[in-house]
Amino acid sequence: MTKISRRTFIGGSAMMGALLTSPELVKALTSQPYPRVKVANIRNLRVGEPVSFNYPDEHSPAVLIKLGERAYGGVGPDGDIVAFSSLCTHMGCPVSYSKKRFVCACHYSMFDPAKNGQTYQGHASEWLPQIILRFEPSTGDIYAEGVEGLIWGRVRNVLKATKTTKK
């Protein structure tokens, strides 16, 4: 076994700490290659009628909704189209959209889709993960391009490499 002096150990530890806290390394370790997936076309949306889809993979149920009022992170001409994971952040039960809110079927946590999926009632302590959307005005298409927050039951939102769609 090789002996390491205290000075060498402290110097090496300091260098490793500096390396691990560098913004470039943190970004490389935490950024995820989200797929770009077409979710809907604005011409087919109606206020208050949810559109179910899966994102970022087939095991991640999500809901897109046209709220009829401007929302944080909303897209479209009125900034009122948002999407969220439909798994409650408390225990992963399904949430459904009703009366301008998402409601957990198991323990009745409630989330406000106009305010980033903020929890305002129930056991859930974290907001619903919001799906990052991009609206293409020329076609009316709406694409999912990422997730803000961690989907329930995961340590990473993207489980495996997925194919992205072309524009």
Automatic annotation (TrEMBL):
Keyword Nuclease found: no
Membrane-spanning segments: none
Keywords: 2Fe-2S, Disulfide bond, Iron, Iron-sulfur, Metal-binding
Record-linked CDD domains: Rieske_ArOX_small (cd03476)
Family annotation (Gene3D superfamilies): Rieske [2Fe-2S] iron-sulphur domain
Domain of life of the native organism: Bacteria
UniProt KW Membrane keyword: no
A family per Pfam: Rieske
Ranges of residues in domain Rieske: 48-142
Any coiled-coil regions, as ranges: none
GO molecular function, one term: 2 iron, 2 sulfur cluster binding
InterPro entries in UniProt: AioB/IdrB_ssu, Rieske_2Fe-2S, Rieske_2Fe-2S_sf, Rieske_Fe-S_prot, TAT_signal
Protein name (Swiss-Prot/TrEMBL): Arsenite oxidase small subunit
